[in-house]
Amino acid sequence: MSPHTAPTSYSDARHPYSTVREAAGLVFVSGQLGVADGEIVPGGIEAETRQAFDNLDRALAAVGLDRSDIVKIVVYLTSLADRLPMDEVYVEALSEPLPARTCFAVGELPFGATIELDVTAAARGTRGAVG
Q1: Which of 13, 58, 89, 101 is the S-S candidate for 7 at Cβ 3.0 to 4.6 Å?
Q2: ω into residue 85 within 30 of 0, thus cis?
Q3: Domain segments of the chain: what residues?
Q4: CA quadruple 58, 30, 26, 89: dihedral sign
């Protein structure tokens, strides 16, 4: 594969970033797609959203955190028509208080994904009482 050719499969890609980084009491998780076994899961936006949250769980667990530590989520969708079905999975996946959130449509996501979750979490012991 040419260095200027994007890989078509997640499993063939080099991922030149850290999955999780911690700085100043915050934990930044790189965008999580609905990928399992090196491929985007079949089943549409709901299945991809569930898988993206499962992948997020693994990334957070690697640094001793879980979904309750999330303070901000950015949701990237390839179509805003997917927002309502994504929201159904989203509210099942998270508990109160819900994280701050930004959600918008993008022209394209890697590997044909329909959703990507970009998360900021608070390191344990650093969450304030605001919210």
Answers
A1: 13
A2: no
A3: 25-122
A4: negative
Angstrom CA distances, 71 to 44, 65, 97, 117, stand at 26, 12, 9, 13
**3-state secondary structure (DSSP) of residue 131:** coil
pTM of the model: 0.85
Q: Are 114 and 78 in contact (CB under 8 A)?
A: yes
The amino acid that residue 120 corresponds to is T
Alpha-carbon dihedral sign for residues 62, 64, 69, 71? negative
CA–CA separation, 69 vs 67, rounded Å? Answer: 5
Architecture per CATH, domain 25-122, reads as 2-Layer Sandwich (3.30)
DSSP H helical segments within the chain, as ranges?
Answer: 44-61, 83-93
